[in-house]
Amino acid sequence: MRLSRATGFIAIIMGGCGCGSLREGPQISSDAGRDEVVAIDAFVVADALTSEDRPLLLDVPTPPDVPVLADAPSADVRRCSADQIVCGGSCVDPNTSVAHCGGCGRACPTGRVCATGTCQLSCGVGVRDCGGSCRDLQRDVANCGACGQTCVSRNAVAACVAGACAVGTCDPGSADCDSNVSNGCECAPAHGVPSCPSGRCVVASCDAGYGDCDRDSTNGCEVDLRASAGSCGACGRTCTLPNAVSACASGNCAVARCTPGFGDCDRDPANGCEASLPGDARNCGACGRACSAAQYCASGSCAMLRCDPSEVLIPGGTFLMGSPVGVGYDVEWPQHSVIVSSFCLGRREVLTTEYALCHGAGGAGCTAPGTGAGCNGGVVGRERHPINCVDWNQASALCRWDSGGRLPTEAEWEYAARGPTNRTYPWGEAAPTNQLCWSGVASRSSTCPVETFPSGTFGLFDMAGNVYEWTADWFGPYNGAAAENPIGASSGTERVYRGGGAFDTGAIAQRSAFRSFRGAVNFRAANLGFRCVHAPQR
């Protein structure tokens, strides 16, 4: 039998003659025979009823929303299918009935349908109600193929195609090389652009400032070329700078810190920490701490340079060497800037007696000087005159014998003659008259005693007049380029001598820039001598 839904009362079926009066309430006889009655809550199940059975109706409220599978005696329940129930005297399918969705009287709201006994949205063909919203299970990435089945794709915008998850658009810098949905756009090299030749993941190019130095696509462009000391600016470019701990800054080698005792004073990373602070006179103890030209740097502190009493310290400096075009002789052109370091120059020209000491001691190269008219060597009364009639080799030999000295370079000689103010003559700008030993104002037949005519600002004597002086340089034209401690031509046939002679009558030869005279290394003359240079003492 089907369960019947009671409406406002409960029907209790009594069997046999075991009924009592209505006032006495319902009675159920113990000898009901084959009749059975079971009453549970508001449900009555009757089995094997006979025509003699009579219902007793009790006015008892029916609990709300209680499903009852039979509703009215007028329905022919034998005609209802197995998946139907009787509601309002009619057979209805609770799985699809909008008025009785899931049970009699459970009507769906307007705009909804009944599906599998549940009120749902009316979503149309191919669309399902998922949690109160219509979803296209064929294309919805949050409900792909079934409600709540979400598509997630690595490094990509996920997609749902025909109800199955798929890889949509790859994120920038990613690619789907293996067409495997489960790993999405798996080719995503760090700091690089991917490529998929023949389905392989490779790095096509690197972002600016990065490099694929190990050629391994799995780690992408793994090196930051802007900061890697081992690959600075390019793969494999190692930063190794002198006297420094190297670093890489913006793709360029840089000094991270200097080795103790050195400084990066010029801020040029190419030469690292170039300054030796304990001994660099321009950076003595620290960058920019310069010693004066008359000083040197010792253990990071400035100290005075010293010369032998017979010499004058010429502090290093910069001057204009030569003459402007059109002034003097063309061999003096062009005038150019020259830097010379400090040196000790003989206060006077070498004496005849000093050369005699070297010759008498058998000094190497100190052969006998020339004799003849005007030569001073061995002449009584000329012990304080400059030695003359010696060639370039003899002059060089005496300087070497004298505590390792040498002849001055042209640049050193001219700088000492001009002084720090670039004078035309050693004494200044006034034309020569009686400032020197020469024949311009009176005829002379010999040289003058040394230290008779002071000239220049450094305390030297006879930088013009008396005798010309050998220099260390081969003769050659100036190239006009600025220079530091130049040594003249690398080779030649003649050596330059400077300074004007006692027998000259023309003022032009007394200028500090004058350099027209030169001679072979074995050339001698009565108006040609020399003075020596030594390194300053510390």
Protein traits:
538 residues, three-stranded antiparallel beta sheet, paralog of FGE (formylglycine-generating enzyme), mainly beta, single chain, disordered N terminus, four-stranded mixed beta sheet, rod-shaped, 3 helices
Summed up, what is this model?
The protein is mainly β and 538 residues long. Helices cover 5% and strands 25% of the residues.
Characterization of this structure:
By secondary structure, this protein is mainly beta. Among the domains are: 244-294, no CATH class; 305-538, paralog of FGE (formylglycine-generating enzyme) (Alpha-Beta Complex). The protein contains three helices and 34 strands. The protein has a four-stranded mixed β-sheet. A three-stranded antiparallel β-sheet has the order 23-26-34, with no helix packed on it. The longest helix is centred in the C-terminal third of the chain and has 10 residues, at 392-401. It starts with 9 loop residues before the first strand and ends with a strand. Residues 1-74 have low confidence and may be disordered.
